[in-house]
Amino acid sequence: MPTAVVLVDDDDLFRESLGRNLSDAGYAVRDFARGAAALDHLLAEPEPAALVILDWRMPEMNGIEVLKRIRGANIDVPAIFLTALTDQIYEEAALATGAVDFVEKSRSFTILEKRIGLILEGTKARGAANCNEAETLELGALALNFRTSRALWRERPVELTLTEFKIVRQLAEKAGADVPYREIYDLVHGAGFLAGAGPEGYRANVRTFVKRIRQKFRDADPAFDMIGNYAGFGYRWKAGDDA
Prior knowledge:
The chain is α/β, with parallel strands linked by helices. It starts with a strand and ends in a 6-residue tail after the last strand. Helix 2 packs parallel to helix 3 and helix 7 crosses helix 8. The chain has two domains: 126 residues, 3-Layer(aba) Sandwich (Rossmann fold), CATH 3.40.50; 107 residues, Winged helix-like DNA-binding domain superfamily/Winged helix DNA-binding domain (Arc Repressor Mutant, subunit A), CATH 1.10.10.10. The chain has a five-stranded parallel β-sheet with strand order 2-1-3-4-5, sandwiched between helices. A four-stranded antiparallel β-sheet has the order 6-7-8-9, with helices on one face. A three-stranded antiparallel β-sheet has the order 10-12-11. About 7% of the residues have low confidence. The longest helix is centred in the middle third of the chain and has 20 residues. The protein is 42% helix and 21% strand.
């Protein structure tokens, strides 16, 4: 059975185009021009959708309000904001409300499809995990909640995207060990995917991710310095004598 996706966007042409791309990619799409109609659908469906894709600016009820009401109804469906708004404050607000990712509309469908795949793979993995498996990781001042993909540093929230959370989790679970650029890149894009200039172009991509992660932790704690770099190889989350 195709994976069910709910798409909410008041731009008719964009919604139709994206809906068609999602359908061609194998998803069962229910699209709505208004947040209220999408919310009614989610509340009425006995089997929840696997994913909700939300625009931010919509008449009557904006995307943030839709997501707040979804969470208020205890519907634990992953949500992505797909919006033309690019300021970091919007991304932080979306993640704080319970979204798992924030993607600019200018990005290609290939990028969005990859993000969706990573989110759904993570959801399936959580569903298949043993019920005794730990849902959290605490490492010094770092606390990770795997169920909600949320990070705390010194008890302060660090608003990571789902991809950034995956990278931090990978580094933290291997604290004290050097994690190669390629391993981090494959975690984000899948094994064998290439980007950037030349065969080593993926390193620049990873550096960009890590730079952004470091900055988000420093926003919570200017003294943060737990992600070390092994030049030419990769990164490590410092532990023990490294910290």
